Amino acid sequence: MFAVRLKQITKRFAQTLANDAVDINIRQETIHAIIGENGAGKTTIMEILYGFYQADAGEIELFGEKKEIANPQDAIDNGIGMVHQHFMLIPPMTVTENIILGLEPISRSGILQLVQAEERIRTLSDEYGLEIDPQAKVEDLSVGLQQRVEILKALYRDAEILILDEPTAVLTPLEVKEFFQILRRLKSQGKTIVIITHKLEEVLEISDDVTVMRNGKKVGELPTKDASANILANMMVGREVLFSLSKNDVTPGNTTLKVENLSVTVNDKPRLKNVSFELKEGEILGIAGVEGNGQTELVEILTGLLKLDTGTVWYLGEDITNLSARKIREKRIAHIPADRKAHGFLSTYTNAENQILGFHYREPFCRPNGFLNFPNIRENAKNLLKKFDVRPPLPDLQTGTLSGGNQQKLIVAREFSRHPRLLIIAQPTRGIDIGAIEFIHQQILDLRTEKVAVLLISAELEEIRSLSDRTLVMFEGEIAGEVSAATFDMEKVGMMMTGHR
Amino acid sequence: MWEILDLELIASGLRLSTPLILAALGGMFSERAGVVNIALDGIMIFGAFTGAVVAYETANPWYGLLAAMALGGLVAHIHGIASIRYQADQVVSGTAINLLAIGVPAVLSNALYNSTTVTPNIQLMLPIIHIPIISSIPILGTLLGKYSILVFFAFAMVPLSWFVIQKTSFGLRLRAVGENPEAAETAGINVYLMRYYAVWISGLLAGLGGAFLSIAHGSSYVNNISAGRGFIALAALIFGRYTPKLTLVGCMIFGIADAFQIRVQGVIPIPVQFIQMFPYVLTMIVLAGLMGRAHVPAADGIPYAQAK
Ligand SMILES: Nc1ncnc2c1ncn2[C@@H]1O[C@H](COP(=O)(O)OP(=O)(O)OP(=O)(O)O)[C@@H](O)[C@H]1O
Ligand SMILES: [Mg+2]
Fold it and tell me: What pTM, to 2 d.p., does this model score?
């Protein structure tokens, strides 16, 4: 029995054919993975199932019956729940308020019955092992817990079919483990789950079936037991993907960056405590750690977004402590932020405009008379979009409409294009497909060969392991330990990340 | 001169804060739902004018009141169409209404009564409520004794608004579309409709605030009757961090300052123009100084485009 059958779904956005006659069959009480490159159309087709978008053509069948799903309410009424790539939560509200929104239990006089709702949420949370406090404010919860609130939201609406769009992208390895347990529990209680992900090992671990998409089309659908990482990668990208990087020997040169005793307090909380380290030319220094242990503050200090309380930052022998972001960029320090939406680009600007941010006031993008030089700006964008394989490679498209992976490539293109001497790059491959990961990793290694110093901040241990020459582990604002590439041990670093020495 | 600082000052301050409270609460509904309504002042003027005209023509202030609310709602609806349906810039749309409010009443009153600046005095004002026992107690009597019915209504609206916004499903949805309309839509809420409701409420209340000026506090419409009170109401709302209780405080600060200003005119040797500035300057100082970090509804002022 199929819980969902999507038949010949087609959807076009202005310039892009996001889904091209796609068929997907999802068996009841299974976990079904959907994979594919950035921009392949995975989110779009699931948003169609959820009624957020309308298909231009095609049919939807649920449990054997043809259904019209005109809006999310229809989907909810048909037992479909969705956890979006970007959470649909209202941070200043409580967990309960977020969950009951749109389906509020009210007394006869129209008053919200929060107590009853909390009770029901507590029961659901216990039943599936979610451990959520219904009275907590969402903004006080970690990302992992916010995600569980999203799942609760769907369960509260009696969802039978749960769509999860890249749920693990924001989770720590430990959280992923717990999360998969929750998914298995849901499945064993009769739910059908669709999970979109870029991580092949997760597909192999958790799913029963897998659908592969490329360029808006379905290129394959197979039982997971018949799949392997290589088979899937091949189908996704249409070519062989190298899973191991070739890293050539580079002898580190002079010291590029040296920080001494950095300390900073934000909102009365000490966020960095006496952090010191050195980074040399041609070296990749990894900063491992669970997010929120001071990495953000470290990056913001080095890029001029946050002022230090005490400590000194030396760059090529020069004291650059507390210089402005612009001054720092002018010194050829490039920055690829962890939260690309918030700090990497402006979603309502075009690709060409985003491609010159931070360099917009200088030649060749600005004329001496202060006017922008649009021919140069477009030309620049055209070249970079092509070189970095941003899809679609259109300079005049609003960046907000690109898929997440392509937005990231756009930022990488901008920052790499200015020949940095120091690259500060945080969570470079979050939410990015394996083809693009391979590409970005290779770019980072190429910079290293060119003797650029790279500070790599990542929550992905595998990424740190495969790229870094040395790794510092951060925990609660301090350097909890240091390991070299030769002595890198996943287990040990994982322990250090959680405060065990 | 200190004899002017008496209880009567407070009482008259409460009266003068009434139109502000009504308009500010209206603004609160609208802004909490994500629609900036700087048209409050214009809506008040329309409300004051309509209220005075209908009250005079029908010789019944209650009809004036209803007409003022209805027109306030209608004008707000225009703001809604522009800023919700057509996703126009909400400040521009609001400004357009404020500009209309300068011209339209003048033209109409000229056509009706041959005067661009005033309408005829109404025959009957809204009733003044004397609370029987309290009005004879010395201090309380002065403080609470006799007010227009609208004053009581405005103050009652404060806890009522709080209740609606915090404790009802309507309020929850309203806040949701003001914080994250996309999330609200995925929860199956009609974002546009919620925003229209909110804007309508703001129109009803601001219209009522205007009517207070022309048929409860005064007895006719005069040119520039709002004296920028719609903007002060917005300031009070921001000061009040978009919550009813604090907004009430903001309105009362201005209301009492206004009452003070009226009473010191002629008592202290400062040109009247400067004395009249006092409440406005105070507003600016309060806004700049005591503001603190307010949580502005995250989607306030941002038009929402429904997905297709
Ligand atoms: N609202 C929109 N307007 C215009 N184009 C869009 C819109 N949403 C998606 N697209 C385009 O449709 C294509 C498919 O996008 P979609 O978000 O479904 O990809 P995806 O497979 O989920 O990618 P990712 O892995 O990066 O999340 C992309 O080319 C994208 O640029
Ligand atoms: Mg996606």
Answer: 0.81
